[in-house]
Automatic annotation (TrEMBL):
The lineage of its organism: Bacteria, Bacillati, Actinomycetota, Actinomycetes, Streptosporangiales. The active site is at H170 (proton donor/acceptor), C236 (acyl-thioester intermediate). This is LPXTG-site transpeptidase (Sortase) family protein. It comes from Nonomuraea wenchangensis. InterPro entries: Sortase, Sortase_dom-sf, Sortase_F. NCBIfam families: class_F_sortase (NF033748).
């Protein structure tokens, strides 16, 4: 599939992502003329870790800040704050490389898919499944019975190819921490490796990370088309709402392709 066709596919899928609804862990937000954003399920559910009286491993920072930074910050526990809603994705932390060329035929492209994600700093070594949106525009998440699995939005680009690849995962389940429990610890410059079923490997370098309210989710910044190959990792964070069985915020990691094996 050509780069142009790939962008067109994501652009066609974007309206579905923007339909009002509460997705697994991401909150809804109105961005200009865009519709409401999807959510990423926290995966805690009734009887989750906080419902059981256990403290959250992710704490909200800069709560109630009136003036937001004009850009996404470097992230990490000391700098996990949201940027202005109209801020662009953060600039690459290191020199980038050209995207992995897309498969020439649709048939060949369908066969390839992400198979595993590794994040050395936070000891993530996880299989990657596939998620999509339902008829209401809600973005799916991995099964709660598989807390170590992540989910690739199958209508986003293959890892390493041009555009924003979307991968989400739970921060916790009723049994305890899940695959992205430590996602908020990442900072600018950390590496993320995504392996594909066709043997290709994409190394991304974190360019920024933010914690955003689900009511002001930066839809365009997260899901909008990009120049070059980029990656978005999404999970839940902040304060746990026992009544709604959900976290109030999302953690969003932005990364750019810095090395590839083809």
């Amino acid at each position: 599939m050509s780069e142009q066709k790939q962008k067109t596919t994501l652009e066609k899928a974007l309206p579905g992502l923007l339909i009002a609804g509460s997705l697994a862990g991401v909150g809804a937000v109105m961005v200009g003329l865009l519709s409401l954003a999807p959510t990423v399920d926290d995966g805690s559910g009734p009887g989750g870790p906080l419902a059981a009286g256990q403290p959250s491993t992710v704490q909200i920072e800069n709560a109630g800040a009136f003036v937001l930074p004009p850009t996404v910050g470097p992230g990490g526990k000391s700098g996990l704050t949201p940027a202005r809603i109209d801020a662009p994705p953060p600039l690459a932390a290191v020199p980038t490389v050209a995207p992995i060329p897309a498969a020439k035929t649709t048939k060949a492209k369908v066969k390839a898919k992400p198979s595993r994600i590794k994040i050395p700093k936070i000891k993530v070594n996880s299989p990657v499944g596939q998620v999509t949106v339902d008829l209401k525009g809600n973005l799916g998440t991995p099964s709660l019975s598989k807390p170590n699995q992540t989910g690739w939005y199958r209508f986003s680009p293959l890892p390493g190819e041009n555009g924003p690849t979307i991968i989400n995962g739970h921060v916790s389940t009723r049994k305890g921490p899940a695959v992205f429990a430590r996602l908020s610890e990442l900072v600018k410059g950390d590496n993320i490796y995504v392996y594909r079923s066709d043997g290709k490997v994409a190394r991304y370098t974190v360019s920024g990370i933010e914690q955003v309210s689900k009511t002001t989710f930066p839809t365009k910044r997260v899901y909008g088309n990009t120049e070059g190959a980029q990656l978005r990792l999404i999970t839940c964070g902040g304060v746990y709402n026992k009544g709604a069985h959900s976290y109030k915020d999302n953690i969003v990691v932005y990364a750019t392709l810095s090395k590839k094996k083809v």
